[in-house]
Amino acid sequence: MNLNKHKFNLDIEEIVLEKDLNYIEAVVYYCEANDIEVEVAAKMINRNTKEKLQANANTLNLLVDKTRPLPL
């Protein structure tokens, strides 16, 4: 499979719209459907898609906010 960064990001956008998945799910779906490692896909993600992934992760409380002090 010839993995092109631009096509990869377009495919992710298409999967999000067609399958009603969030960006995290879309990347995992793409990787499973195309038999590629998530680590390989991570290198293909452009800034725009990365921002959308980060927004999804924030919404799902998957990211640690490093700016807040620990509740002690």
How does the major sheet shape up?
none
The run of helices and strands is HHHH
Number of helices: 4
Question: How much strand content do the residues show?
Answer: under 5%
What ranges have pLDDT less than 50 throughout 5 or more consecutive residues?
Answer: none
**What portion of residues is helical?**
55-70%
Distance between the termini: 50 Å
Total beta strand runs: 0
The coarse silhouette is elongated
CA radius of gyration: 14 Å
List its salient traits.
72 residues, elongated, mainly alpha
Please render the helix and strand layout as text:
Elements: H1 5-19, H2 23-34, H3 38-42, H4 47-59
Helix pairs in contact: 1-2
Question: Can you give a write-up of this model?
Answer:
The model has no long low-confidence stretch (mean pLDDT 89). The termini are far apart. The protein has 72 residues and is mainly alpha-helical. It has 4 helices and no strands. The longest helix is centred in the first third of the chain and has 15 residues, at 5-19. The relative contact order is 0.16.
Short structural description:
By secondary structure, the protein is mainly α. It is 62% helix and 0% strand.
